Amino acid sequence: MNTQTTSKTPVALTIAGSDSGGGAGIQADLRTFAFHCVHGTCAITCVTAQNTVGVVRVDAMPKEAVIAQIHAVAEDIGVQAAKTGMLLNQEIIAAVAEEVEALQIDNLVVDPVMVSRTGAQLISDDAVQTISHLLIPKAIIVTPNRYEAQILTNLEINSLDDMKAAAQMIHRSLRAKAVLVKGGGMQESLRGIDIYFDGQNLETLSTLQIDTKNTHGTGCTLSAAIAANLAMGKDLFTAVQQAKDYLTTALSHALDIGKGHGPVGHFFPLLKN
Ligand SMILES: Nc1ncnc2c1ncn2[C@@H]1O[C@H](COP(=O)(O)OP(=O)(O)OP(=O)(O)O)[C@@H](O)[C@H]1O
Ligand SMILES: Cc1ncc(CO)c(N)n1
Description:
The chain has a single domain, classed as 3-Layer(aba) Sandwich (UDP-N-acetylmuramoyl-L-alanine:D-glutamate ligase). The chain is of the alpha/beta class. Helices cover 37% and strands 17% of the residues. Pathway: Cofactor biosynthesis; thiamine diphosphate biosynthesis; 4-amino-2-methyl-5-diphosphomethylpyrimidine from 5-amino-1-(5-phospho-D-ribosyl)imidazole: step 3/3.
């Protein structure tokens, strides 16, 4: 029996909310890290009571508790890459931004969770401003969906050209090092197409469109997979391309559970057929 521990295991940290339904948030992130053979650590920002139909209740953690979790992980285990998801309120966002700066976490993926898939704003205007001005400039990449990109730019996004203009504006005016504008909320012909911009390269990432209502956790899974790939030392564009492939495969194995939108499925490497 081999009793040695693995010394070079990459470690990623997710700073996000808990989803009781297990499809998005911390649960999706840790599962994604695990399926990339990356050790997953977490700082829970809020606890949601939700399922495949919707969010019933959200309770925020005190900001001190969020920071203590990040500290506990960073000072002992170390963090090769991190991602943020639902940060919920201005206090938590500002504290996380400060901590990320203090710990010099360079591989930071910011999924600016602000708006539901239907376009409803989930956080206050003050919190949006704090994400824009304190957190996004610290990210190696920010991954807004269609509606989040609209809020960040004040642009209407209806076409591929609009997605490109938004990615360029977020890079320029919010000082994001790189941007991925996601197309899950676009009309059918553009669904599954994402725009990547890093200040030099403007790339269109397209995949097979998956015809499913079970799309819960797509954004969380994608940003966690990018963080996992960065933790493994991949360059940013490779990390994004491979994360997109992982997400597409997971989406094509989505789970038909619950009465609403089931979660993307991560078990495909274990399935025989
Ligand atoms: N039907 C689909 N077929 C293929 N890819 C899809 C489909 N729907 C979404 N995607 C992809 O899923 C990823 C997440 O995009 P989306 O716009 O859904 O993010 P999000 O709104 O942040 O997700 P979430 O619902 O988890 O909040 C993107 O890469 C997007 O292109
Ligand atoms: C906890 C949590 N984070 C993110 C999302 C967005 O999918 C969600 N529904 N729940």
